[in-house]
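Record type: ASSEMBLY
Status: queued
Input:
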Amino acid sequence: MKSKSVTVFAPATVANVATGFDILGFAIDAIGDKITASVTNETGVTIEIAGTDAPISIDPTKNTAGAPVLKLLVAKNLKNGVHLKIQKGIPLGSGMGGSAASAVGGIVAAAKVLKVKLSQEELLQYALEGEAIASGAKHSDNVAPCLYGGLTLTKPGDQPDVIRLPFPKNIFCTVVHPAMELKTSVARQVLSREITLQQHTQQTARLAALVAGMCDSNSEWIKRGLEDVLFEPQRASLIPGFAAVKAAALKAGALGSSISGAGPSVFAFSKNKATAEKVRRAMIKAFTEAGMHSQGWVSAICKTGAVAK
Amino acid sequence: MKSKSVTVFAPATVANVATGFDILGFAIDAIGDKITASVTNETGVTIEIAGTDAPISIDPTKNTAGAPVLKLLVAKNLKNGVHLKIQKGIPLGSGMGGSAASAVGGIVAAAKVLKVKLSQEELLQYALEGEAIASGAKHSDNVAPCLYGGLTLTKPGDQPDVIRLPFPKNIFCTVVHPAMELKTSVARQVLSREITLQQHTQQTARLAALVAGMCDSNSEWIKRGLEDVLFEPQRASLIPGFAAVKAAALKAGALGSSISGAGPSVFAFSKNKATAEKVRRAMIKAFTEAGMHSQGWVSAICKTGAVAK
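Status: finished
Output:
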């Protein structure tokens, strides 16, 4: 008898989005994790990792995909268990929402294969349990866009109250990942805990332009909104070549460019696919000149979020 | 011979708009200053004040309407002078953009009567000279909406780069002014100069919702965006009865309510005119119960900004 299984593609996500620190994130089509959940006869979660040599725990209590599924089994008092095959497509510590993708993909696949109906809000809460294992807190800025798709706005904390923001059709994203790992915890440590009133108002003036530009498909406003005057300057030195890579993206025609999530990946927005491709090549070249190997993707925004294939 | 004159209605404005501290502002139809500019034969600016007993300087170098006009005469090397009649409709120190209205109305009327063509950006820069006399700095969050109309987004500083944001048709504003004066300088002094990272992200999550709600006509998002978790708590105690007035507005059906500019006026948004009127009565009643006389207005958003009547 063929055992039941469901495979979910969970997209990579770009959080922060320049001025939207800890609140904005969007999903991209080009890259993601694939999670296959199969029903097993013994209760509990077993895990199998593929696509990476990185040391990822297969202990479900310590695995970002496993923990949410384990919690689901307990919460619903299910007799069966789940086997998760996690095919990592997103490089670890890349700032592209890899842990969020595994957490979201795991719970979406498991709920589907177990025929447990969960609302998007419930799925989000389960996935946040997994994200907390990876980053130490229930950050929703990668989990929300991975689950809902598109561009999402969330409140920091336990109740993110996801808003799915409009997103201009023609905008394409470039993401380039230099061959290094940067832990979110390290990237957070460099941030000053205090912000001046002036920094706050200068940053919010740009954030408001970004949001308005997204809602109103106004690329000039988006351009202004991608000027992160607060966090990017504090983190830029963690990424070798960042200034040159950003400059290369702008010179190649990008509307703007900033750090993807906590880095080290760098993203850019462009007005069309051809420009986004030109931007990708320019960014990779700049990383190479800074002595860093890198890999890059051009992608439309992923509208659907994590879905069963 | 009848001397040439131009009269301009310069609308009151609500700056900050809850979470849009120092960057958002909108103009209202219901109340404003009227400035009449007449050409005189002798160069220089003379000033006449009406509609208020408040001690407003008629020295053009110290008057918010006079200073920009004086600067224009010098910049354009004009032989004629200008007489300004300032009919104050906006109470002084009310947090409804009175100084911005006089500054904008003065320069718009003077430029028109003198037949000097100025772009909106140039008019804004002249008006900011006047605003600087009143508040000590070139704050554009009242000047911009007074000049451009509607809801504006500006960058703090000398180059505001005004963005005119979309605004939902059906939203009506209530503004209630308690019979007291609150100097902007005092209201700024109570603000902490440092903001924590957490306060910044919590506030920006709401600001982004406000902007998205305005652009997308989504009243639920606007509702969230009107929760100022950062500045309002620091300023609320400067306005006797504020908590009760805000609670009354919400109970009467307002989407949200916060301090207008630096206060002491309080504004609220409602989904329609009838609710905004109900909200107005509830707010005035709450001020009365707190021992404060007050006056209130219900208004659509003023789309045009300062224009010659």
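Annotation: Chain B touches chain A at residues 20-24, 153-157, 161, 163, 165-166, 191-198, 200-209, 211-212, 214-216, 221, 224 (CB under 8 Å).
Annotation: The first helix of chain B runs from residue 66 to 75.
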